[in-house]
Design brief:
The chain has about 240 residues and is mostly beta strands. Helix content is about 5%, strand content about 55%. The longest helix has 7 residues.
Length: about 240
């Protein structure tokens, strides 16, 4: 079963200093029928204005994955981390027993756009941790690159490619698919798949039918489905695909 959630169906939050599109209930957006997809609790598409940001704030018992689409994001946390994250960088922060962090845009003139995804951890009260990795385009060009990996069989295979580690049975893949190129993703019966299109246009085909995705659209997929993805526009299709329980 595939449910396509269009860009327009997301909840828009515009505070001036930050523009966010929420795929699930978050902050001022409350919808009990759209609270999560499996262990995926939040999927926010944020654009942070120059010299703006989130002041230091706490998190507990969350696995937080961020991916910088454009611009530069500055991360500072109570574990002593201070890091500038350029476009094409993924980071994972395991909040566990508790951590504070801030996220700011250090640029004087360029916004930063980044995805942030929250997952429930496989176990509570874990020791907080942080890791990041700059991903070169060759690694995910015309393929599914496992940028973040958990503990499933697929994830263990993914870890061999130096993916970041996450304390949950999920794998987050990154792809930049050139026009006309195709990829296949065989989904397992007991798994879920969440696909989010950042840029370009993507055609999805499976036993449920044919679906056209534009930037900001997402597909939530359940049950067994051999998913075929085709980049349909003149520009490459850039997307994140999450395999989760």
């Amino acid at each position: 079963m595939i449910k396509v959630v269009t860009s327009e169906e997301r909840h828009t939050s515009d505070r001036g200093w930050i523009h966010s599109e929420f795929s699930f209930s978050f902050a001022d957006y409350e919808d009990p029928s759209n609270a999560h997809f499996g262990c995926l609790l939040a999927h926010n598409d944020n654009t942070l204005m120059p010299q703006e940001g989130f002041k230091k704030h706490p998190h507990h018992n969350l696995e937080i994955v961020s991916y910088v689409i454009s611009g530069t994001l500055k991360h500072v946390d109570s574990m002593g981390t201070e890091q500038l994250l350029e476009a094409g960088t993924a980071q994972v922060m395991s909040a566990g027993t508790g951590v504070e962090h801030s996220e700011t845009n250090p640029s004087e003139d360029e916004p930063v756009r980044f995805l942030q995804m929250w997952f429930l951890p496989s176990h509570r009260e874990l020791k907080p941790s942080y890791a990041y990795r700059k991903i070169e385009e060759d690694a995910y060009l015309n393929r599914l690159y496992p940028m973040v990996s958990g503990t499933s069989d697929r994830a263990n295979e993914s870890l061999n490619e130096n993916g970041l580690r996450i304390a949950q049975d999920v794998t987050c893949y990154l792809s930049r698919l050139e026009s006309g190129k195709k990829l296949m993703f065989p989904q397992h019966e007991e798994r879920r798949t969440h696909l989010f299109l950042m840029n370009g246009h993507l055609e999805l085909q499976c036993s449920d039918g044919h679906f056209d995705l534009k930037p900001g659209d997402a597909a939530r997929i359940r049950k067994s489905c051999d998913l075929q993805m085709t980049s349909a526009g003149s520009e490459p299709a850039e997307f994140v695909l999450i395999d989760l329980p």
